[in-house]
User: What shape does this take?
Amino acid sequence: MKNIDTYSQFIVQVANEDHLHYAETICAEMEESAKKRGTGIAKRSPVYLMEKMIEGKAIIATSKTGEWVGFCYIETWEHGKFVANSGLIVHPDFRKSGVAKAIKAK
Assistant: This one.
């Protein structure tokens, strides 16, 4: 784990078109993490995550140097009546750093 100050060492923001290049890496990490933990994290395609980014329904954390740190998106149903946080993933090097709390707070 990298030694970081959660609130000053990375940027947490609504993901957009500038972040599309991270989608494939994030999907691969989601799949790898699910395998390691034996959990039922739903496999998503890079295109699906890109759509969430373009729709403004995703949060991304990056380091000041542009390294991917964490990601989360939301699911909505019944015309936005219900919303759920989904797909929260943190890069292995940054786990236990507090970044997940920062992403959820955003």
